[in-house]
Design goal:
Elements (H helix, E strand, L loop, with lengths): L13 H5 L7 E4 L18 E7 L3 E10 L2 E10 L3 E3 L4 H20 L39
């Protein structure tokens, strides 16, 4: 679980230590086997949480933990080596920026703003299948034959 991937052993990259974390930022907790200090428990490995405390070498992260049927918000302290910025909100932020640009362009042109909500794909329209070009294939099971 905490073992390093192939060809990723050795000294940790400087970006791990030079990265800035802010309160409220979403991070992924991923235990790094090369560093035992400040390592999270295995139950938090792979979880996404929100930063509530920043110290020189570690972060305080609020993570949801499922205990039997309930979900508790646990506060854990994890060193920077075991934390990565989460990419879970990238699609949401890109969609919000795109919607804002469309809204601004419509406002400049004086047009009404279209509905920018995501819509599920509706049912496909009705159509006829031409049997002369697409000959139907009949699927029948092969009869059992005992081969010696």
């Amino acid at each position: 679980m905490f073992s390093r991937d192939f060809k990723t052993n050795g000294v940790e990259h400087l970006t791990t230590y030079l990265r800035c974390y802010k309160m409220g930022q979403l991070v992924d907790v991923k235990g790094n086997g090369a560093f035992q200090k400040g390592m999270p428990h295995k139950s938090y490995h792979g979880k996404t949480g929100r930063v509530f405390n920043v110290t020189p070498h570690a972060l305080g992260v609020v993570v949801n933990k499922r205990v039997r049927g309930r979900i508790f918000a646990k506060r854990i302290n994890v060193r920077i080596e075991h934390v990565h910025p989460s990419k879970c909100r990238d699609d949401h932020i890109a969609r919000v920026k795109h919607n804002d640009t469309i809204r601004r362009e419509c406002k400049k042109a004086g047009k009404p703003v279209p509905c920018l909500k995501r819509r599920p794909a509706g049912p496909r329209p009705a159509h006829y299948v031409n049997v002369t070009r697409n000959t139907p294939t009949f699927l029948t099971p092969i009869p059992y034959q005992f081969v010696v």
